[in-house]
Amino acid sequence: MCDAACGGEGGTRGSSGDARRARRVGRAYLLADLPACATLTARAAARMYAALLGEVDGLRLLSPAGVEAAAAVAVEGTDWMLLRRHAKGLGHFLGMPPMGGETTAFGHHGSGGSLAFADRARGLSFALTRTRLVGPDNGTTRLLADAVRAGA
Q1: What is the pLDDT of residues 103-137, one digit of tens each?
Q2: Could you say which DSSP state residue 41 is in?
Q3: Which residues are paired to 86 by β-bridges?
Q4: For burial by CB atoms within 10 Å, which of 60, 99, 103, 152 has the most?
Q5: Distance in angstroms (rounded) separating the CA atoms of residues 53 and 61
Q6: Count of helix runs (H) and strand runs (E) in the chain
Q7: What is the pTM of this model?
């Protein structure tokens, strides 16, 4: 998807017209909110998770039954990339510590402490993206998410 959004076909470009198109499409790609390609703003991520929970500006991404299905445990065990035990729903981590550790929360973390999730029990969505990567996570993301949850 990312390659197609950039205007490429497996990274090959032949003519100067292709290069012009790649620059034009590349700018559109960089301005687009594409979660799988690391070009998502915190505002867009929070709105996406809010639209999973309910209607946002007339749009709802999943029915209530779809949210239940997406947030149900699909697999649980050691994640081979993260080398930690996690529960996962359909495309989302469930109840990670920065999400409050509750199974009513589902979402995904990203590089350097970025995080986005929906909390079904509180009816809220949260997203934080980082402009400066921190590693290991310095705890700021969890502190902010905890403060937002406490105010909900």
Answers
A1: 889 998 877 778 899 999 889 999 988 776 666 66
A2: -
A3: 77
A4: 99
A5: 8
A6: 5, 6
A7: 0.70
Question: Per-residue confidence at 11, pLDDT binned at 50, 70, 90?
Answer: very low
> For the chain, how big is the Rg over CA atoms in Å?
18
3-class SS of residue 68: helix
Assess contact for 94 and 106: CB atoms under 8 A: yes
Instruction: Please list, residue by residue across 81-104, b when 16 or more beta carbons sit within 10 angstroms of its beta carbon and e when fewer do.
Output: eeeeeebbbeebbbbbebbbeebe
Q: Any alpha helices (H) in the chain, and if so which ranges?
A: 2-5, 16-31, 42-53, 64-71, 140-151
CA dist 37 and 25 (Å) reads: 15
Q: What is the CA angle 80-121-136, rounded to 5?
A: 35
Pairing, β 124-128 against β 105-109? unpaired
Amino acid in the structure at residue 66: G
CB 113 within 8 A of CB 92: no
Per-residue pLDDT reduced to its tens digit, 16-70: 566 666 666 666 666 666 655 556 788 988 999 999 999 999 999 999 999 999 8
